[in-house]
Amino acid sequence: MTKVRRMFPGGNTAEGFYSFHNNIIGNNRNMLYILKGMPGGGKSSLMKEIGKQALKEGYTVEYHHCPSDPNSVDGIVIDEFKVAIVDGTFPHVIDPVYPGLKDKLINLGIFIDSDKLKENEEQIIDAKLNNKIAYRKAFSYFKTAKCIYKEIEETNKIGVDFKKVNKLTKTLIDEIFSREANMDFTFLKKRHMFSNANTPDGFIDYTLTILKGVSNIYYIEGEIGTGKSTMLSRIMEEAVVRGYSMEIYHDATIPDKIESVFIKDIDVFITSNSQCKEIPHNKINLNQYFDESVKNEEDYKMYNLLIEKAISKLLTAKENHEILEKCYNVSVDFEGINKVKDKILKEIFTVYI
Q: Could you tell me which SUPFAM superfamilies the record lists for this protein (predicted)?
């Protein structure tokens, strides 16, 4: 069945740019095409075109979006072929692990006209500097927001009955793992990703695209500090003990926190993402063990304000990146890039079919 899944392999977080790009495809792959090149050099368009063709032919495509420009992609995976194409340039540098065997490096930089590029040298240098400053400020705001988040956690924990939360966690684990498993030995045992991201366009969430076709969905409802991420961690640990394959989706701002766990072998998705309220689910309510009177609304306001400030700086960074793209765009031989795209397409649909 044709299916589109969307996610983010990286994130703009309190830890800076956080990358899970090495999890886009596992070692069981047939081929990983690694694109190297320049801003505005057609990497994203090339991947989108190949993804579009694969969908047209009836195959499943995973789009790995760029958190700094969600309209662009950092990679695609064509599921049935076990083939991926990725942007391997900074800040998510990817290099071949098995050159010529499972990985192919494709240098699109050969299609730059250096003489034309020199005409925009000053603009490029200025834009790169301004881009760096904007990201530094954005990450500072995210880092400060994390401090406020931790303060909210500590405040709210005072009002939580953790004995009851722990009892509910044990009951939930028993229920989830009572299902018969259909083990998938070809999949990465633990695949870490983001299902959403802080972007220049605001908070973008693709969780619902990942849930298509999943039979058993559990939504954990709870305020900050009520134990959602801890509950998910315990479920993940149990799945590890049993040797199950999982997709683990991390919090977009604080990546050491888990937001969702998809246990493929038993077709169960457990999440604290509120988007899941829109679809049929089993609800786990941690707020029933929480005394809301302990909440400090000022801390919540401060946290949200810092996230807004950070996103405004991501927008500034994107504006500077767009200047870079325009400067490079006029120097690129797109005819040459299209020939590369056609060659990859032909190879995928003849060799790996």
A: P-loop containing nucleoside triphosphate hydrolases
Q: Residue 260 belongs to what H/E stretch?
A: strand 258-263
| Residue 86: per-residue pLDDT | 98
| Domain boundary assignment for the chain | 4-111+334-351, 160-290
Task: Sort 174 into a burial class: Cβ within 10 Å, 0-12 / 13-18 / 19+.
Answer: exposed
- Give Cβ neighbours of residue 309 (< 8 Å, ≥ 6 apart): 141
Place of tokens 């983001």: 194
Residue 303 main-chain phi, psi, to 5 deg? -60, -50
How many residues would you count in the chain? 353
> Alpha-carbon dihedral of residues 132, 133, 136, 137, nearest 10 degrees?
-150
- Of 131, 182, 168, 148, which Cα lies nearest the Cα of 308? 148
Q: Give the Cα separation of 44 and 39 in Å (integer).
A: 10
Give Cα separations from 71 to 24, 52, 66, 94 (angstroms): 18, 15, 7, 21
List CB contacts of 229: < 8 A, sequence separation 6 or more: 251, 257, 258, 259, 272
pTM: 0.96
Give pLDDT tens digits for 3-56.
Answer: 999 999 999 999 999 999 999 999 999 999 999 999 988 999 999 999 999 999
Other beta carbons within 10 Å of 346: 10
283 vs 27: CA distance, rounded Å: 36
The tokens for 182 are 């259909």
